Amino acid sequence: MRNGLYRKAFRVGIRVLLSLALLYSPLEMQALTEVYADGITDDYVTLYEENFDDPDSFGSTGGIAILGPWLQEGEGNSMAKTSVSSTAPSLPNLVKIDGKDALALPVNSTGYRNLQLSYYTRASSYIGGSVIVEWSSDGGINWTTLEEFKLPPGTLEQKNSEPNQLKVQNLGSGADNNPNVKIRVRVGELMSANMYIDSTG
Ligand SMILES: [Ca+2]
Ligand SMILES: [Ca+2]
Q1: Count of helix runs (H) and strand runs (E) in the chain
Q2: What's the confidence (pLDDT) of residue 115?
Q3: If you measure from the C-alpha of residue 12 to the centroid of ligand 1, how many angstroms do you get, rounded to a whole number?
């Protein structure tokens, strides 16, 4: 496919508001060729964003399982759920990743390239464990790690913590113009900590 059919880029914020019109219609895709021809090549298009804060979907007291379009793929019904903090990057909720949680987001990037994922991480009461952020170009058969989020090991007497940290990750070219992209946040090493993700705003 000619490059002219692509938009320059698309950002997936984990502030992903479900309102996010995930895909552009084929009709709009046609028009993208014109946009390219007009030389508008530096704009970023946010296709999806979520802040996990809509009270109707996520409540405001914590413990609410994250639902579609996210997929809960954790073993043994392990679910990524909301957690409340007055210092969350976007209030009131962050998403706690623990147990065997694996929270995935399918993305159709047809017509787009240079995908970028942004999100915040946070850890507290940290002794050990990790959260892996990864993406797949084939719907979840194979995964590429973007980040393994972990801290220097702590002890019962001295637990570590790390405040909100913004992460911006560029996916590889295999994520370009691909209806089967998947992004996932999951527990890597066994968790002995409180580890969270949230939106960028
Ligand atoms: Ca969990
Ligand atoms: Ca939030």
Answers
A1: 2, 12
A2: 84
A3: 23
User: 40 vs 10, 32, 106, 142, 194, CA distance in Å?
Assistant: 14, 10, 27, 34, 43
- pLDDT for the residue 7: 59
Q: Domain extents for the chain?
A: 3-198
Q: What are phi and psi of 105, to 5 degrees?
A: -130, 115
Higher pLDDT, 169 or 80: 80
C-alpha span between 66 and 159 (Å, rounded): 28
Kindly report the CATH class assigned to 3-198. Answer: mainly beta
Give the span between the Cα atoms of 8 and 112, in whole angstroms: 7
Spacing, Cα 109 to ligand 2 middle (Å): 24
> 78 alpha carbon to ligand 1 midpoint, in Å?
5
The token pair at 113 is 């390239």
CB atoms within 10 A of CB 71: 16
User: How far, in Å, is the centroid of ligand 1 from the Cα of 137?
Assistant: 25
With residue 159 as reference, give the H or E element that holds it: none
Distance separating alpha carbons of residues 94 and 83, to the nearest angstrom: 5
**Mean pLDDT, to the nearest integer, of 138-158?**
98
Q: Quick one: tokens of 35?
A: 């946009």
Using the mean position of ligand 1's atoms as its centre, give its distance from the Cα of residue 102 in Å.
9
Q: Bigger pLDDT: 84 or 13? A: 84
Quick one: pLDDT band at residue 62, thresholds 50, 70, 90?
A: very high
